[in-house]
Amino acid sequence: MEMVVDKAECLISKRETCASILAKNIKRWGINHIFGIPGKAISPIIYAADQQGIEFVLSKHESGGGFSASGYSLMNNKIGIAIGTSGPGGTNLLTAAGQAKASNIPLLIITGHPGMKDTGKPMGQDSTVFGTDLVELFKHVTKFSVRVDRGDMLQIYLQHALEKAVSGIKGPVHLSIPFDILTEEIAPFELDFPSSHEMISPDLDKVVDLLNSANRPLMFLGKGVHSSKAYKEVRLLAENWKIPVITTPGGKGTFVNNHLLSLGGFGLGGSKEANDYLLQGVDLLLVIGSKLSDMSTAGFSKEMYPKHIIHFDYDQTFIGKTIDVPTTTVLGDIRSNLSFILKDVTDKENSEFLIPKQQHQVKINDRYERMSSETTVKVIRNSLPDDTIVFGDDGSHTFYGIKYFDIFEPATFFFDDIFGAMGHAIGYSIGAKIAAPDKKIVCLVGDGCMFMHGNEISTALNYNSPVLFIVLNNGMLDMVEKGMRKMNGKSVGAVYNTPLDVSLYAQSMGLDSFQCYTPIDLKEAIDQALHLIEIKEKPVVVEVIVNQDEIPPTMGRQ
Question: Which of 296, 350, 356, 422 is most buried, taking the most CB atoms under 10 A from its CB?
Fold first, then answer.
């Protein structure tokens, strides 16, 4: 009898709080940072994470925390974790969830709740059906959203959430864990981080036959190539079948510009070469990892329609919805499917396909003439190393980047052309730099995005994320302002009465900053900024005052 009691006491003594078990698993997965803003409902997670040596990165807004966790996920190839307290902490994370879903980024969002035992009673920041039902709200912007109502449900729900986040079309998931569940003691458990089991299409032999018989094929790359990291595979496909390549705005960075088969971009920010090639006729269009949204197909007239499309994607939803021609669907992971097609192809790393890199020629203006955004982007490209990773925020500034910023190494430019949350790239770049401190990270951003989430540059300073923030400032929401003028002859509410002084704004939060008016100013500022980042390991802001009247490469959108 005594032996039975001893065993029972031993089992009881091994029990741990749900928060502690959760933190130990997070550490076990190799995640060393979590992002968000504290609150009572989630404080047990923060304390437990701290005991495991996991750094809590205090963001300035929960959306910024979610964006940073997404950038962290993008660089660590696992998952990012963002936490927010109950009620408004959770609703502030909804935008970050929507952005992560559009970008196919694995993200675990954890929100709190005052306590399950008081459900149905009046509570501050109630996150159940009696208040702001966070579980229901997150269902529409995540792949999985559930409340952990009992401690013994944590393991199975956590496992389901992780599997959903990293399998198939990757994306965000949400767990609502009430305060009393986080502090509840249960038997400890360990979860292995799940690996994704990729699906391969059964129609690949037909794809090879179509490739072999095509006379004038063309490849159209979207951001799904980024998601699957199929950079090598799309290059081999292009080189083996001699297929020219164009990219969507979101596909920028998937294929280098100094490749003989590169025609640049299509859609908003697209090139004349891509446009002309399509007008001359295409018999087979390979769409790889793109929904073919309005931003990607702006200017795609019926005269450009191919005879046949092969569409590679994980999701059937939008295939055949934009271009009405016969389509062969290839579902599943892009890299896995392309690897199967290329199983007999040897990678020769053939340099004959690469052409010498050339620096952009730029006009030198005087200080009384505002520099164009085109010139700005060309100077930025000339000044940055080839392996610099650029995160483009949403606005005209990045469409100038799509048009004029040449790519010399794949996976060095990221932009979302679907959800388009302004300010998201600020957080993405911060989290990316924390996850990959050896990478050179630049955020290309506008003054409108800085007004929305620029306060996160303080997070970059406080948590040793030495990002170079380059801000194009023309005192307005440029893409909206120019679009309004085109459609209605005037703009309303798109110009700031008091423009943001980005340089002073950055200095007020302790960052080194530069304000530039000419190409020479900008070149010198970038050189100094890169030097400061190297010696001080702190972020730097470079503000460029640009021409307000320049017409951006977004006017082709209907």
Answer: 296
Whether residue 121 has pLDDT greater than 60: yes
Its sign, for the CA torsion 277, 309, 98, 391, is negative
The number of beta carbons lying within 10 Å of the beta carbon of residue 498 is: 6
- Is the confidence at residue 5, as pLDDT, over 60? no
Which domains are seen in the chain, by residue range?
Answer: 17-186 (3.40.50.970), 204-353 (3.40.50.1220), 373-545 (3.40.50.970)
pLDDT mean across residues, the chain:
93
Task: Please report the pLDDT score of residue 8 as a whole number.
Answer: 47
Separation of alpha carbons 538 and 89, rounded Å: 28
H helix intervals, 248-372: 272-279, 334-341
| Helix, strand or coil, per DSSP, at residue 117 | helix
Q: What are phi and psi of 283, to 5 degrees?
A: -95, -25
| Whole-angstrom distance, CA of residue 68 vs CA of residue 8 | 44
Burial of 336 by CB count in 10 Å (0-12 exposed, 13-18 middle, 19+ buried)? middle
Give the burial class of 451: count Cβ atoms within 10 A of its Cβ; 0-12 exposed, 13-18 middle, 19 or more buried.
middle
